[in-house]
Amino acid sequence: MKIIKSLFLLLFLLNQSIFAIVNINTASKEELKTLHGIGNKLADKIIEYRKTNKFSKIEDIRGIRGIGEKRFTNIKTEISIGSYELAKK
Question: Model-level pTM greater than 0.90?
Fold first, then answer.
């Protein structure tokens, strides 16, 4: 029984990390790199952008050089801009 509980806990934790939503306004470099197609360089560009700007909608990330329509399509279900976006839905 203990093994079954441990297995369910492990599956739950893995499931949570797979479906995590990344807040592009506050995410660390490591969190940004969990997004499909985002590596060190793009994570750095996102963080640099945030120093003087704020993403007001997820589509704003397309303003980052290297994130075009295709890459945006791949990550749009994985990103948010924070609680404001969730509240207006």
Answer: no
